[in-house]
């Protein structure tokens, strides 16, 4: 199922990129940085299943001889069964798949060792996500037992911080510099600014 780790693009094929981030505020610019692509499909959605508009569009678009590039396995699918189904479906149609982070390329040729690596890495990622969910459930249960209400993670910027962020952006300071000055990530800054903007919209009478 898998051949060498170096990407191999057929002479007639196109290089196609698939990018996924979990939310609109997340930056996807570095996922396939440095990879020359003919076409890119980007989803801003959870990877909990395969019903993602751009994933489906990519699967419809590619043809025999094309080469799909993905940053990492968890960007393509979060469950082992989905990961295997997508990769097998593509390679069965003559489409190669490369995961740049893992430096692994799948072409449809039988390679027991690399097939094992796909299953192993996919299973480890799925197991890690299961552990995170289990810890969250345990934390919620402990909070309820103590009579407290679980409210999720505390916001990284309080009301004063949000006001300061809005003021700095209004002054024309780049958002990257605003985030650095306030000690938060750009993703967090975008999220709090978006939430603040929504809160400022007056309700219709």
Mean pLDDT: 79
The secondary-structure class comes to alpha/beta
Helix content: 40-55%
Question: What is the CATH top level name of the largest domain?
Answer: Alpha Beta
CATH homologous superfamily of the largest domain, by name?
Resolvase, N-terminal catalytic domain
N- and C-termini, Cα separation: 61 Å
Features:
single chain; 205 residues; alpha/beta; Rossmann fold; 2 domains; 5-stranded mixed beta sheet; 7 helices; globular; disordered N terminus; disordered C terminus
Walk me through what this model shows.
- Helices cover 46% and strands 12% of the residues.
- With 205 residues, the protein is of the alpha/beta class.
- It has two domains: 15-119, Resolvase, N-terminal catalytic domain (Rossmann fold), CATH 3.40.50; 159-200.
- A five-stranded mixed β-sheet has the order 2-1-3-4-5.
- Helix 5 (159-170) packs antiparallel against helix 6 and helix 6 (175-182) crosses helix 7 (186-200).
- The chain is globular and about 60 Å long.
- The protein starts with 14 loop residues before the first strand and ends in a 5-residue tail after the last helix.
- Mean pLDDT is 79; it is low at 1-11 and 201-205.
């Amino acid at each position: 199922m898998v051949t060498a780790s170096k990407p191999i693009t057929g002479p007639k094929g196109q290089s196609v990129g698939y990018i996924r981030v979990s939310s609109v505020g997340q930056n996807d610019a570095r996922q396939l940085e440095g990879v020359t692509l003919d076409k890119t499909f980007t989803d801003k959605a959870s990877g909990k299943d395969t019903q993602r508009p751009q994933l489906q569009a990519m699967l419809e678009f590619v043809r025999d001889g094309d080469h799909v590039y993905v940053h990492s396995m968890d960007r393509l699918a979060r469950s082992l069964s989905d990961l295997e189904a997508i990769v097998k479906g593509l390679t069965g149609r003559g489409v190669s798949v490369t995961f740049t982070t893992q430096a692994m390329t799948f072409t449809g040729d039988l390679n027991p060792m690399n097939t094992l690596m796909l299953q192993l890495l996919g299973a480890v990622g799925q197991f890690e996500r299961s552990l995170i969910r289990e810890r969250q459930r345990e934390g919620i249960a402990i909070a309820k037992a103590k009579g407290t209400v679980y409210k999720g993670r505390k916001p990284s910027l309080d009301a004063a911080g949000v006001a300061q962020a809005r003021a700095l952006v209004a002054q024309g300071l780049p958002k990257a510099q605003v985030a650095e000055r306030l000690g938060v990530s750009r993703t967090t800054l975008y999220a709090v600014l978006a939430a603040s903007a929504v809160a400022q919209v007056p309700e219709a009478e």
